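Collaborator request, handled under Task 6.
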Amino acid sequence: MGINGARGETKAVLAGRERRLCLTLGALAQIETALGLESVGALAERMRALSGRDLVAVLAALLRGGGELELATDLDRAAIDPREAAEAVAKAFAAAA
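Structure tokens returned to the collaborator:
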């Protein structure tokens, strides 16, 4: 799997498979909408205490940003460990910095 670090892409192992995640502008907009936020500043605050539902929404948006559309749309059925999900989200945000 080729990862474009200049684009802010990162990879994470989710449910036993390597996946690509990316915080794109579209992913950011999806996250803000899903979490009912008005600004990026509000997102930074919310990321400190994500609920399980929030984590699923953020992970799905990051997977869509990385082109992982199949997993992003079927995330509810994927056997993803919550720690793996949290680590993948943190890694994607760090890669975008």
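The cover message to the collaborator said: "Residues 71 and 96 are 21 Å apart (CA to CA). The chain has a mean pLDDT of 89. Please let us know whether this matches your experimental observations."
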